[in-house]
Amino acid sequence: MLNAAHQLTLEQVTDANRDAVLALQLAPGQQRFVSTVADSLDEAAANPQGNPWFRAACVAGVPVGFVMLSWDVQPQPPDINGPWFLWKLLVDHRHQGKGYGREVIRQVVELVRANGGTELLTSHVPGDDGPAGFYARLGFVPTGEVDPDGEVLLRLRLVP
Question: Which of 15, 26, 56, 120 has the fewest Cβ atoms within 10 angstroms?
Answer without folding.
Answer: 15
